[in-house]
Each structure stands twice: as C-alpha cells, then as structure tokens.
Amino acid sequence: LTREEELRYTRQLSIPGLGATGQALLRSKTALVTRVGGLGGQVAIGLAMAGIGKLVVAHGSSLIEPDLNRQLLFGEGSLGLPRAPAAKQRLEQLSRFVAVEALDHEPDEDEALALARRVDIVCSCPPGWVERHRLNRACVQAGIPLIEAGMRGLEGIMTAILPGETPCLECYMPEDS
Questions:
Q1: Tens digits of per-residue pLDDT, 31-83?
Q2: d(CA 59, CA 84)
Q3: Is 132 within 8 Å of 151 (Cβ atoms)?
Q4: N or C terminus: which one in the chain shows less Cβ crowding within 10 Å?
C-alpha cells in the first residue's frame, strides 16, 4: 500500500483479520456491479470507498427525476445523463484509488460470461429476473461468487452464491417461476 492508501484506510487496517495484507488483496480485486440504481449504487459506493481496485459498472438507462429520492450515487446534475458514465465519474470523485469501467448497457449472455471470467465477484442488482438469471449462469460457469441482490418494495434481499458450495439462483428460484 502507498502512504496515501495507508492514511485513507487507517481505520480498516486496524481491523483484526484485514490489516495491510487484506487491504492490498482488496485493492487487487475487480468487481462487476450491474444496475447502479438504489441498491447497486450503494454497493458500488461501498466497494469504491472500501478500496477495491477496479469496478465495472453496467447500466443501460439514463437517470430520471423519480430515481433521485433513493439513489445516493447520483445528484440532480446527473438528470438525463446515461447512468454508467455518470456513475464512473462520481465513483472516481469519491475515491482516487479505484479505477472504474462503465458499460452503458446490460450485458447479454455472451458478454455476461466474458465479464464473469475477468472479474473476481459479480454484484447483481437488477430489478428483473431475466438479467439476474443470466448473471447467475455466467457466475456458475466461470466459478466466481455472485452477490444476488434485489428490492421488493422497501425491503432489500441479498444472497451470496458460491458456485460448487451453495445452491445457485436457479436452484431456489427457477427462471420459469
């Protein structure tokens, strides 16, 4: 870690089991966060502020007024802008230590698998089941962890899926259900 990183992450470095080794490991990792809305935006902020080295954010729409009441990643200056590039700009403002790649669309089947093969974890935050199942299949095939998260009203639901260790999304929530 650089001296600047040590200063930034001073409080984290004192956490038993994390320390400089864990912080350096986090810095070496890449996460994909799909859909940077109310839930995914918070995930992306948390990862960036914690010190992950690289974030890939994917979201294919522009920010609209009704989104602002629950999306802390964005402000009024982002209204009408495509979310992924606006998220990249904001995340890089929050932390100079994170590199952000913005995808202005939802990954299709092939791209989801290609992305899963080049990241260390996928944080799936889309509202719809089609995309959630697509990301699940990609993570299972690539053998990487999936944090599957969604909202139902004002309730957030999160599940960690570890291929080969836990049931996958399809196992407990079949696509045709």
A1: 999 999 989 999 999 999 999 999 999 999 999 999 898 889 999 999 999 99
A2: 5
A3: no
A4: C
- Residue 104 gets which letter from DSSP? S
Structure tokens at 38: 């109310």
pLDDT value of position 171: 87
CA-CA distances (angstroms) from residue 19 to 6, 14, 43, 51, 120?
Answer: 10, 6, 22, 13, 20
**Nearest Cα to 50, choosing from 76, 86, 87, 25?**
25
H helices within 29-149, ranges in order? 38-50, 83-94, 109-116, 129-142
For 72, list phi and psi in degrees, rounded to 5.
-75, -15
| CA–CA distances in Å: residue 30 to residues 56, 130, 146 | 7, 24, 13
Alpha-carbon distance of 22 to 19, in angstroms, equals 5
Give the predicted TM-score (pTM) of the model: 0.93
> In the prediction, which pLDDT does 176 show?
64
